Amino acid sequence: MNRIRPFPVAAWLAAISLTVACASAVRTPAPGPVSPIVPVAFGLRVAEQYRVAAITTRRFTHETFWRAVEPSISSGALRSEEVGRSLQGRPIRSVTFGTGGTTVLLWSQMHGDEATATMALADVFRFLAEASTDPVRERMRARLTIVFVPMLNPDGAELFQRESATGIDINRDARQLATPEARTLKSLRDRIRPDFGFNLHDQSARVLAGPRGRQVAIALLAPPFGVDRGYDDVRSRARLVASVIARTLGGEIPGRIARYDDTFNPRAFGDLMQQWGTSTVLIESGALPDDPEKQRLRALNVAALLAALDAIASGSYAGADPNAYESLPGNRGGASDVLVLGGQLVLPGMPATRADIALVYDDALARTGAKVRDVGDLREAVAIDTVDAAGLFLHPQQASLTVENGGVWLRIGAAAAIDLRRGADAASELVRTVGTPGESPTPNR
Question: Less crowded by CB within 10 Å, the N or C end of the chain?
């Protein structure tokens, strides 16, 4: 598990003192002499120092969140207003910081079970409320008007489910606007007409960076505005901001950043925000080893957002290399959680059979509730964690087996706990067990 490295504050302040301010009358900061991009260590230090301690897990309610951030909201540095209500009547609130000429809109948890960015926003709020002399904070205050909408889907968050109370995916309601939550976001967008937008989500833990890459921690997308997936000025700006994030996080989580699929979806908010003229970046938080509550990803979100917002404030995003985004590996889903390769499968009373076994967890982050996904020749399959069982024998535990009418079956979908032993005899030496709750992944993943 990587530690958060302390950032040399004196060096950062020295770098800031050498920069030339870039003021512009236009809504999008103009290129010119600009500040350096905020390094990841700065954002991680902020995440550690200003962490809101009342939120420690990825499952929390609307009431819990707003109680936790109330000290920041009431500080006087932030402005909050009710911009709508959910179907069940929960207030949807915006939080605004700064009075600058460039407007940025960020919204999180439009899927109720995707809370990583919402946790990060709580920490960002505290930083903005308390760090009154910080030069990054002050630059954002002077040059940006930042409007946050945390937890857009409070009814879904109440049950930690993706959809709204009606079962509608709010991120597939940008065109029809059938839900009050979608109407709230669209109405706010139309009122403030943001120059930049950030669509903050979580994605499956079973996604790799490229066909056989590492587990994806962060996926980025400058969404398309049409089926041809072309680039106009609006989308090009979004790509540059995404490049800033990719560059900022790349050294901290090498090989774990991917580019999300850019097939146009006419029902999705990110795609239509781009179409409506807001340069929008999608940030998807995936998973990291030994981070079941996504607290390290929470800190990385803080770092990514501060780097992106400051790059917009300073105008430095305009000098970003778009290849930092375009060269990211594709976001490849469909992986199993565990793949046991090269072993001999043994069912009680039967001869050993050459077979690989793929497992998936009910909770891929906590690694609990393992089930058998596939059995057979799986040499081309991909997984987050691969176990080399060459020369070993795979003995499913009793709970994994179905015993009826004198026969024994290992069934797809069965609870999975597989003993890896030295021999075909069930009493032979046990090497390890896969599928047990909370089992740590193989280090190279």
Answer: N
Q: Are 392 and 381 in contact (CB under 8 A)?
A: no
What kind and span of H or E run contains 348?
Answer: none
> According to CATH, what is the number of the domain 9-332?
3.40.630.10
pLDDT per position as a tens digit, 339-362: 999 999 999 999 999 999 999 999
pLDDT bucket at 37, cuts 50 / 70 / 90: confident
- What's the whole-number average pLDDT of the chain? 92
Torsion of CA 18, 133, 97, 88, to 10 degrees: 130
Segment 243-262 shows an average pLDDT of 98
Query: Residue with structure tokens 């790799």?
Result: 208
Task: Give the mean model confidence (pLDDT) for residues 36-55.
Answer: 95
Residue closest to 258 by CA, chosen among 334, 338, 335, 326: 326
pLDDT at 442: 56
Q: What percent of the chain has pLDDT over 90?
A: 89
b/e map 49-67, b = 16+ CB within 10 Å: ebbbeebeebebebeebbe
Q: Where are the alpha helices (DSSP H) in 176-294?
A: 180-192, 233-250, 269-275
- Assigned token pair, 73: 């909201």
Q: Which residues of 156-168 are buried (b: 16+ CB within 10 A; e: fewer)?
A: bbbeeebbbbeeb
The angle formed by the CA atoms of residues 393, 399 and 401, to the nearest 5 degrees, is: 65
Fold classification of 336-434 is Urease, subunit C; domain 1 (2.30.40)
Domain ranges of the chain: 9-332, 336-434
Instruction: Determine the average pLDDT of the residues in 239-267.
Output: 98
- Rounded Cα–Cα distance for residues 267 and 276 (Å): 13
Concatenated DSSP letters of 97-149: E---SEEEEEEE-SSTT--HHHHHHHHHHHHHHH-TT-HHHHHHHHHEEEEEE
pLDDT: which is higher, 375 or 29 = 375
